[in-house]
Amino acid sequence: MDGLLGRFLSFDKMITGTIVKFLYYILLALVILGGIFFLLQSLFSGNFGMFLGGLILLPLAIIYVRMICEMFLVIFRISDNLAALRQMKENETK
């Protein structure tokens, strides 16, 4: 099992970093579309206070999504670095 399927099933290389990046773009689009919908709905309903709240919450939601995805990426990069250190240590002892 040296092919793509073998690498996928052996968990030697993490693919979650790519998935997190893809998930970030999906969540970013959802947050922006939801924010625009919220802003337009509050504007057309005449609730100006809710509109201002949406203007404040939209950038904060974008930053929050970015922070969550970055935390996941940091965890997986730590895992990759630990695997590389383990491999270096095994090569030194041989």
TrEMBL record:
One Pfam match, given by its short name, reads DUF4282
UniProt entry keywords in alphabetical sequence:
Membrane, Transmembrane, Transmembrane helix
Which InterPro entries does this UniProt record tie to the protein?
DUF4282
Q: Which residues cross the membrane?
A: 22-44, 50-76
The domain of life is Bacteria
Q: What is this protein called?
A: DUF4282 domain-containing protein
